[in-house]
Amino acid sequence: MKLRGKVHKFGSNVNTDVIIPARYLSISEPAELAKHCMEDIDPEFATKVESGDIIVATTNFGCGSSREHAPLAIKASGISCIIAQSFARIFFRNAINIGLPLLECAGSVAETEAGDILEVDLSTGEIKNISKNKTVMANPYPEFMMDIIDAGGLIEYTKHRLQSI
Amino acid sequence: MRTLAEKILAAYSGKENVKPGEFVNVKVDLVLSNDITAPLAIREFQRLGISKVFDSKKVIMVPDHFCPNKDIQSAEQAKLMREFAKEQGIIYFEVGRMGIEHVLLPEQGFVLPGQVIVGADSHTCTYGALGAFATGMGSTDIAVAMAIGEIWMKVPPTINFVYHGKLPKWVGGKDLILYTIGDIGVDGALYSVMEFGGEVIDELSMDGRFTMANMAVEAGAKAGMFKVDGKTEEYIKEHSRHRYSRRSEECYPPGNTGYSKIIEYDVSKIEPQVAFPHIPSNTKCVSQVGDIKLDQVVIGSCTNGRLDDLRVVAKLLKEKQIHPEIRCIILPGSQKVYLDALREGLIEIFIEAGAVVSTPTCGPCLGGHMGVLAAGERCLSTTNRNFVGRMGSPKSEVYLAGPAVAAVSAILGRIASPEELLDSRLS
Ligand code: SF4
Questions:
Q1: Is residue B390 in a domain?
Q2: Domain annotation covers residue B427
Q3: Could you tell me if B53 and B195 lie in one domain?
Q4: If you write DSSP's letter for every residue of A80-104 in order, what string do you get?
Q5: CB distance B375 to B393 below 8 Å
Q6: Domain range holding B228?
Q7: What pLDDT shows up at residue B423?
């Protein structure tokens, strides 16, 4: 699957408290959560993000709490995938489980700037920066995780597994 | 030789051996969620098309984050969770019986060495203090674990943290873990297990160990673990509701060599630590903080809301007054901690000093209720996170420290060392 979108750039340790502050955690509707996504570090994020856009960040993206509201809010805001040098562990699981693609990639981040247009091929891991005419490769997913992604998330994957037992 | 985590994960995935990086399906002994994460988990559970949880005695829900209900929306979430708990006949602690989940579960005897526990809360890693493999996950993972009693995991490598020397006065588990995170950074143990050992750890109380295991996630770790020793066994004997026998050698010191890294510290000269905004790794020694005036001090949470913590606070607050410009909020971590503190006379000391004492709740720790900060306000807190907006306004500031620094800072109105109070008592 190919994705194409404009870059929103973030730094290191973007944590779940800023992705979706706890004051909104008594909501669990993704569309409502999306209205407040990133508001404490980028108050305009929710209004300027367009469907298909891509988040690019440096290290440890998604650190902090286990709240699944964080990847849900990002996904519902229209973001099609997140590219980072590294992700926090629980955030990584949560995003894969709910079907928000993440790409771990050491190389691409430094040169990528806000507003660049990227084209991402999820099946090969190829990330093309159209604005800068540069291509890099993301780390491939382990096979096990690919099965969950292919199934469309953990719930679907588990359903298949239960049926086949 | 394999590490503690590898031994447990091998046993729970039915394998002879597991290696870091390997994907395994792991059986679980306990599946936890709370009033924020359970509603999402229940929604996903229902999508699975399964009507009953895998084992009602192994699924547990605790209304602690926004409970007692802070507003109508949180009341609805708590209600959804309560009704599901009732319908499924799972373990549930109602307001009046509850505590902050990570204080409550070990104290109520649900945690045993060598177990695998997963929770829809990142601080589930707290139970590693008792030699369990415990880790936080999201609601979808927890939905699957509730349904089938197992979950996928990637076997993590283990970093061994060894603490040598003798702990100085007023330095405790919170200072050790803040010092460590200050050294390795908030992703210093990413995807790894932090295993704590050394003669300092041998001497550390169980409450101190819970504090350290609790903040392993603040270094990016999957779990924070301690080997089982006499102190663990004593704790288990006092609290456990299940019979515990050394059914395996999984949790005992085998003279490990399977670590990915060994990091050693001599802590004989370290001071109480303070983490500055807006990240837990931004630590300083308390003598280096300068003049930081405060508006609020919060003492409690799953990090430092246990009896040992409250005893330290009471020792310093006794016959003292909270600074007139400070709101000092003290939250015992569970009803049991509250009652024990009451019987020991600690609560009386707190109230006489001018502190607010609240029923157990996460409340202010995550900016929920009971002490939310306004723009420009500064709070010193014994909790575990100080990210932007964690305790309220994105323009507020949170400093993290242990209970001794918190108590003295509440008295002096600025971040201060326990030594300063003792000096002023002498003069
Ligand atoms: S006390 Fe704070 S860190 Fe602990 S479970 Fe509650 S909100 Fe999370």
A1: yes
A2: no
A3: yes
A4: -EEEES-B-HHHHHHHHHHT--EEE
A5: yes
A6: 4-266
A7: 63
Q: Does A77 touch chain B (CB under 8 A)?
A: no
pLDDT tens figures, B238-296: 998 776 665 555 666 666 679 999 999 999 999 999 999 999 999 999 999 999 999 99
Q: Which two tokens stand for residue B42?
A: 């229940």
CATH of the domain at B21: 3.30.499.10
Which chain A residue's Cα is nearest to B74? A26
Three-state SS at B330: strand
Total domain count, chain B: 2
Regarding whether B326 and B256 lie in a shared domain, the answer is no
pLDDT digits (tens, 9 = 90+) for A25-36: 998 899 999 999
Question: Do residues B161 and B178 both lie within one domain?
Answer: yes
Q: What single letter denotes the amino acid at residue B27?
A: K
B277 is written with which tokens? Answer: 């905004």
Token representation of residue B50: 């399964």
| Domain presence at residue B426 | no
Mark out the alpha helices in B115-259 (DSSP H runs).
139-148, 173-184, 199-203, 206-214, 230-239
Q: Tens digits of per-residue pLDDT, B307-356?
A: 999 999 999 999 999 999 999 999 999 999 999 999 999 999 999 999 99
> CA–CA separation, B277 vs B275, rounded Å?
7
Same domain, B262 and B348: no
- Does A159 sit within 8 Å of B48, measured CB to CB? yes
Q: Which ipTM did the prediction report?
A: 0.94
Domain end point (choices B266, B296, B325): B266
Nearest to B383 by CA among B149, B132, B20, B65: B65
The reply to whether B306 and B287 lie within a common domain is yes
Contact: A86, B190; criterion CB under 8 Å? yes
Answer yes or no: is B406 within a domain: yes
Indicate whether B189 and B287 sit together in one domain: no
The whole-chain average pLDDT of chain A stands at 93
**pTM listed for this prediction:** 0.96
Of residues B37, B20, B13, the one with CA closest to residue B223:
B20
Name the residue among A93, A14, A127 with its Cα closest to residue B187.
A14
Encode pLDDT of A94-142 as tens digits: 999 999 999 999 876 778 999 999 999 988 999 999 999 999 999 988 8
Q: Are residues B198 and B216 in the same domain?
A: yes
Best probe of the B interface among A10, A12, A19, A25, by most B CBs < 10 A, is A25
Q: Is A144 on the interface with B (CB under 8 A)?
A: yes
> Exposure of B1 by Cβ count < 10 A (0-12 exposed, 13-18 middle, 19+ buried)?
exposed
Interface check A58 vs B, CB under 8 A: no
Assess whether B254 and B278 both reside in one domain: no
Among B219, B266, B198, residue whose Cα is nearest residue B209: B198
**Cα–Cα distance measured from residue A112 to residue A133, given in angstroms and rounded to the nearest whole number:** 11
* Domain final residue pick, B244, B266, B288: B266
In sequence order, the β-bridge partners of residue A87 are A61
CA dihedral B138, B141, B147, B152 (to 10 degrees): -150
CA end-to-end span of chain A, whole Å?
30
